[in-house]
Design goal:
The complex is a heterodimer of chains A (502) and B (157).
Chain A lengths: L3 E4 L3 H14 L2 E6 L7 H5 L2 E4 L12 H11 L3 E3 L9 H9 L3 E2 L4 H8 L1 H10 L7 E2 L6 H11 L3 E5 L9 E3 L5 H16 L4 E5 L5 E9 L5 E13 L2 E7 L6 H17 L4 E10 L6 E8 L6 H8 L3 H9 L16 E8 L1 E2 L4 E2 L2 E2 L2 E3 L6 E5 L6 E2 L6 E9 L2 H13 L2 E3 L5 H9 L1 H4 L7 H9 L5 H19 L2 H15 L1 H5 L5
Parallel strand pairs in A: 1-2, 1-4, 2-3, 4-5
Antiparallel strand pairs in A: 6-9, 7-8, 7-9, 10-11, 10-13, 11-12, 12-15, 13-14, 15-22, 16-17, 18-21, 19-23, 20-22
Helix pairs in contact in A: 4-5, 6-9, 7-8, 12-13
Chain B lengths: L2 E7 L2 E8 L2 E4 L5 E6 L2 E6 L2 E10 L2 E6 L2 E8 L1 H7 L13 E6 L6 E2 L4 E7 L2 E6 L4 E6 L6 E2 L6 E4 L1
Antiparallel strand pairs in B: 1-2, 1-8, 2-3, 3-4, 4-5, 5-6, 6-7, 7-8, 9-11, 9-14, 10-13, 11-12, 13-15
Classes of the chains: A alpha+beta (502), B mainly beta (157).
Amino acid sequence: MIRRVLIANRGEIARRVIRTCKRLGIATVAVYSDVDAGAPHVREADAAEPIGPAPATESYLDIENVIDAARRSGADAVHPGYGFLSENAAFADACEAAGLIFIGPPGGVIRRLGSKSGARAAVAAAGVPVVPGETPKTQEPDDVAAAVARVGVPAVLKASAGGGGKGMRIVRADANVHEAITAARSEAERAFGNGALYVERLIERARHIEVQVIADWHGNYFHLLERDCTLQRRHQKVIEEAPAPRLDARVRARLHEAALAAARAVGYVNAGTVEFLLEGDGPRAAFYFLEMNTRLQVEHPITEAITGLDLVHLQLHVAAGERLTIDQKNVRAEGHAIEARVYAEDSRRLLPQSGRLIHYREPEGSGIRVDSGVVNGQTITVHYDPLLAKVIVHADSRDRAIAMMDDALARFEILGLLHNIAFLRRLLARDEMRDVRAHTRFIEETIAELTTAPPAATVRVAAAIAAFTAARAAAPVTETMGATDVESTALDPWALLGRWEL
Amino acid sequence: VATRLHVSFGGQNSTARVQGNEVVLDEAAPLVVTEQDGRCRVDGAGLTADGVAAATGDVVWVTVAGEVFAFTVADHATRQRTSSRDQDALTPPMSATVVRVNVAPGDTVRDGDVLIALEAMKMELPIRAPRDGVVRAVHCRPGELVQPGDVLIELDD
């Protein structure tokens, strides 16, 4: 039984976890850094604990500070949200050591899946397809080159110890293999102190499909369908949808089975996501395991929309040691859901923006859900993720969902900093998006078109509004008073009553 | 009485003449702007469109159909308005790059003087003295990226 949950996070995900806890009668404790003392998640929780100064490394990422806050507040469980400490095995261990329930998988599972090569080996052993590749016999350049020849080009050389794109080189048909090996090796040595390389086939023009899974402590594993997160930019997802469109029914079923096999192979517990690359079309499409994320995903609301399940509720249920009683056969997609991530950013240059939200109004309506971490008047700082809000729409068809999303974004009013709403609308309008022909590098390849200047007519309309607003604000006092008089007359309840007699 | 303004966005400058609800941009056909519940409707030149605006300092933020604009609006009256005794005026209104620093510690400045020029989205944003005073400290250098909340300059009376 969980009575009091500390949410080791901030922003929209902290608010989202608080919502479900409130509904279930579970008390909530927020944590906050100095700059977040007045943030919405702090106000909405039943209690709040300070955890340090603005830099995340000294607050939201400081395991000791967060555990201390949990102890002080009398919490019996910790929800890590996503980002920050959510996939930190040491944090999961520290919670357990402090007698707190960590709402996620055990530290050992997080550690195992955190190692790319370890995760790959574990799921491959369970029969889950991984990107074809091989480890060279020795690290002699000739042996590495021979491995490239066997894998076939285009191939990618990867640092065995690596990650984050360091020590990676793509080898195409016309490339000098030995030069690529030398370059990848020296980069890997500098970055990781280890120049060992392995070879993988390069998967190009692929889609990103991921499967939501959930497992309890009693060995019950379920999948909650898939999501298509192909539209991303520098590995940052931008628009996600569920279920995945244009996916052969047999391939879909095999993806679900592979995700469950991967989860079982590592003894997974609680909610997790198995990510795959999908290559090709129709019944012959191939998929390969990418990685498994051991947390609640940013894009979980689209799964909630089509399944009708509350993932945070399920997470709490599992964490409390209860059995999951999901009827797998009846987990079916109801309609189509899309999520768009609204970031404070200069989309052209992909730079996060800070500033005060001098006007902020979310779109409302049937089928529209907005999960946001901000309110009108709030100052957005450079300290944390620039995600302002997620817009989630749910409709009976994909076309209808796209139209609803476009309309919701057009009605989202945010003033005081640059954001990506216009960019999102241009992306939604693309034929490649509508016809499901985009691949994971689509945004990068079309970024110039997606961030062109607004149409001249729109600029003129905006300029007219700017001039009108400035002129009115600057108008001589008498005129301003005149305007105020008109306004107060309109709002005067006696005036609105019209003629009346006592 | 018409108000004459210079409206700039992304390196483009327009002149605007505002009289009541009528706005004439660069001597083109007039546009009619009406406001209701904080939203503006623009009619004219064969189009109708809605938007929302809010001003902070010398910048008027406008959003139309999801596009967001930060206009700098200049004229004598706006300058008077933003030259309030508002300490916020010495912090950038948005993420911006310092282009010029016109003053040094010890300098005497007059209300409205441009102390620092910033650049964001290809437009120049002036940071003006909110009152007469003496520069106590300058906390930024040309080329530096500054954020809202950063104190760029401190003034003594």
